[in-house]
């Protein structure tokens, strides 16, 4: 019975030390401030940038509806990739 209490005490001690040793209200307030700063300094600018890029892409796509968009990958020549063995057709200089 004492082992799980000791384990629980060790976990509480570890969490308390990891959060800077603050307890109660100051601990919660410091985490709120840190989270708010992190949101406004890193998360929100990244979201705004992604949103702006999506808007630019949408405007570019809407401006030219007839542009060509590649939807499939080109099929490689099986003889060049080594899937089919044998002599390749050589083009003569007169054809080129």
Helices, strands, pairings?
Elements lengths: L1 H17 L6 H39 L33
What does this structure look like?
The structure is a single chain. The protein is mainly α. The protein has helices at 2-18, 25-63. It has a domain at 2-47. It has two helices and no strands. The model has no long low-confidence stretch (mean pLDDT 79). The longest helix has 39 residues, at 25-63.
Quick description:
The chain is built from 2 helices and no strands. By secondary structure, it is mainly alpha-helical. It has a domain of 46 residues.
What are the main properties of this structure?
single chain, 96 residues, elongated
Radius of gyration: 31 Å
Helix content bin:
55-70%
Number of helices: 2
Helices and strands, in N-to-C order? HH
- Stretches where pLDDT is under 50 for at least 5 consecutive residues are none
Class of secondary structure makeup: mainly alpha
What is the global morphology?
elongated
Strand residue content:
under 5%
* Number of beta-strand segments: 0
Distance between the termini: 88 Å
Largest sheet: none
| Chain-averaged pLDDT | 79
Keywords: Membrane, Transmembrane, Transmembrane helix
């Amino acid at each position: 019975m004492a082992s799980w209490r000791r384990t629980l005490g060790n976990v509480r001690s570890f969490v308390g030390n990891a959060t800077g040793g603050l307890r109660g209200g100051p601990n919660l307030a410091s985490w709120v401030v840190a989270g708010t700063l992190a949101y406004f300094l890193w998360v929100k600018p990244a979201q705004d940038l992604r949103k702006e890029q999506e808007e630019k892409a949408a405007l570019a796509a809407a401006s030219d509806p007839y542009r060509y968009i590649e939807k499939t990958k080109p099929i490689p020549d099986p003889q060049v990739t080594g899937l089919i063995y044998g002599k390749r057709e050589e083009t003569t200089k007169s054809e080129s």
